[in-house]
Amino acid sequence: MEQSELQAVGYCFESNSSCLKQVRSPAVYVVMYISAVAVVMLTVCGNLVVIISISHFKQLHTPTNFLMLSLAVADFLIGAAVMPFSLILLVETCWYFGEIVCIIYKILFYIFTSVSIGNVAYIAIDRYLVVYYPLLYSTKVTVNVTAAVILLIWLISILYNFVFMYFNGNIGGTEKLNICLGDCVLFVTKGWVIFDVLCTLILPCSIMITLYFKIFIVARKHARAISSVTEQMQSADGGNNKISPKSEWKAAKTLGILVIVFLLCLVPYYICSLALENVDRSSLVLSVLSWFLYFNSAINPIIYALFYPWFQRSVKLIVTLKIFKIESSLINVFSKHI
Questions:
Q1: What is the pLDDT of residues 136-157, one digit of tens each?
Q2: How many other CB atoms are found less than 10 A from the CB of residue 316?
Q3: Whole-model pTM above 0.70?
Q4: pLDDT number for residue 269
Q5: How many Cβ atoms are within 10 Å of 323's Cβ, its own excluded?
Q6: Residue 243's pLDDT band (cuts 50, 70, 90)
Q7: How many other CB atoms are there within 10 angstroms of residue 123's CB atom?
């Protein structure tokens, strides 16, 4: 028993201050790397297609789509700049990239995650304004206003997370954490954990749930009104067909998936953060839970883009390289014949 346990543990480096390393079988390494690479590729490619589609086709240059573009950029950067390092840390249980890269990795992880959450929350506000104040939205919420809001979200996320890292000793003060060689630890005090949960989980979740609930109520009323008018028209024509309010069910399905996926991806990580004094990025439990955050970045293109027919047509134009033709940016992606 003791011998098998010793075989399952090694050292990250040949040094007295080296961290312990969990040694896995070759089959487990292969499965973990293939699974992690698949998630990374899905995140990078999915969000890249969204970025190209909205950036290239002028017909898609709307305030709501620019919010989706900002979200896709944040999720793309998570997949390209953060996930690969987290992948290696999860599989190898060792950090091989040095202290400076560790600091950059932690900062980027929290900045891009905060930006992603901020964009998701503001998309809820944007759709609320569309439903409740359509006239005000069409005149006041312009592309320039949305661009300013997006810039503000990025600036606040960057500033907040630099302050968050600095005052918790993760920038220029890691020597006091007394960590071993081969570890990349995020140290957070209990007070900051609670404050961070309030700012990056409870507040945006409250906004999303409240606004989407109101949007659903309005969508349901509109669907019933339309259904009632249609039934009256059919009755006048002598028709007996029942009308199914598809828009009501579509709204319920889309909003339900959006909120549930968002909560399932974020809540487990933050609950674990509250339960720990030091958020150790090399711990297996927290590393696995962090991949729920990454999965949210991977699934966002599906939730916010694949539900729209124009996205499917944009993918077709990109794959067939038609976007390189002259004036391809003027193609009507809302048309069924392209």
A1: 888 889 999 999 999 999 999 9
A2: 12
A3: yes
A4: 75
A5: 16
A6: very low
A7: 20
- Residue 159: Cβ-neighbour burial (10 angstroms; 0-12, 13-18, 19+): exposed
Task: Identify which of 292, 298, 286 has the alpha carbon closest to the alpha carbon of residue 90.
Answer: 286
Question: Is 74 in contact with 121 (CB distance < 8 Å)?
Answer: no
DSSP secondary structure string for all residues of 149-188? HHHHHHHHHHHHHHHHHHHTT-SS-GGGG-PPBT--EEE-
Those residues whose C-beta lies under 8 Å from the C-beta of residue 214, and which sit 6 or more positions away, are: 128, 131, 132
CB 43 within 8 A of CB 79: yes
Of 14, 186, 213, which Cα lies nearest the Cα of 110?
Answer: 186
So what's the pLDDT on residue 208?
A: 84
Measured CA to CA, the distance from residue 133 to residue 184 in angstroms comes to 48
Helix, strand and coil in the chain, % to nearest 5: 75, 5, 20
For residue 18, how far is the Cα from the chain centroid?
34
Angstrom distance (rounded) from CA 181 to CA 185: 11
Q: Which tokens sit at 200?
A: 């990056």
Sequence-ordered strand ranges (E) for 72-153: none
- Where residue 263 falls among pLDDT bands split at 50, 70, 90? confident
**DSSP bridge partners of 21:** 10
Task: List, in order, residues 6 or more apart from 211 with CB less than 8 Å away.
Answer: 124, 125, 127, 128
